[in-house]
Design brief:
six-stranded mixed beta sheet; about 25% strand; about 230 residues; five-stranded mixed beta sheet; alpha/beta; globular; 14 strands
């Protein structure tokens, strides 16, 4: 089974440049799905700007799993599985600025630099919500937290499933609005229309993982909040 992944979204799906292997919540779940289907996984690189185009190309991969939010826009032209992880937009900032940012209005100021990765929902969210702050698009999502910590920008738009990982691994960073996300969503697997049989199988496996405790164990492994 060919699985598309951006490989830039810790702790969900990350391509480790040292080992050239993928790790994360979604990677573990993909392996469980593949085992239940009796197939082996081969990962195919994709990117957030090209994700839809790549998914619609029948020659690239069968399914994508790398922290993909379920949206109506995606469901109009593709298939998305049942949700297996709760999500929502939040921010990363430097710890010494944590008290400065308590709401969107605090962020949308002329002296604030907001950094996002290109082509995904983070960039869309920033463009829809900030008219005064300076928005900087950085090509590699996994590099943005370090750039925030170094003072290259004030804010990273991110998700509640990603922010805790960086806070835990860099004591210069904070996620002051983690408990109050700006919106709520669910993460699921992405497939082409016409793959309804695969969708049904994946949904069945996700449901079994919820019922037998496997999904909760994955949440616990990566320090994510389980709410099913």
């Amino acid at each position: 089974m060919l699985v598309g992944s951006t490989g830039d979204y810790r702790p969900l799906s990350y391509l480790d440049p040292q080992t050239n292997t993928y790790w994360g919540f979604d990677v573990d779940l993909v392996e469980i799905i593949a085992k239940n289907l009796g197939v082996k996984v081969q990962y195919v690189p994709t990117s957030w700007p090209t994700l839809t185009e790549d998914m619609l190309n029948e020659d690239l991969f069968d399914m994508a799993m790398c922290g993909i939010t379920i949206t109506d826009a995606r469901k109009e032209i593709m298939l998305m599985s049942d949700g297996y992880l709760n999500n929502g937009k939040t921010i990363l900032c430097r710890k010494d600025e944590a008290e400065r940012f308590t709401c969107l209005e605090d962020i949308d100021q002329p002296d604030v630099i907001v950094m996002v990765n290109p082509g995904g929902l983070n960039e869309k969210f920033a463009n829809e919500n900030f008219t005064k702050a300076k928005i900087v698009v950085h090509p590699r999502n996994e590099e943005i937290p370090s750039l925030i910590a170094e003072g290259k920008a004030n804010i990273m738009i991110t998700e509640i499933v990603e922010a805790p990982y960086y806070v835990q691994n860099d004591d210069r960073l904070a996620a002051p609005l983690l408990e109050k996300p700006f919106n709520h969503g669910m993460i699921g697997a992405l497939m082409r229309k016409g793959s309804e049989d695969l969708l049904d199988s994946v949904n069945g496996i996700i449901d079994s993982c919820k019922k037998d405790g496997t999904l909760k164990r994955l949440h616990d492994k990566y320090g994510l909040v389980y709410s099913f």
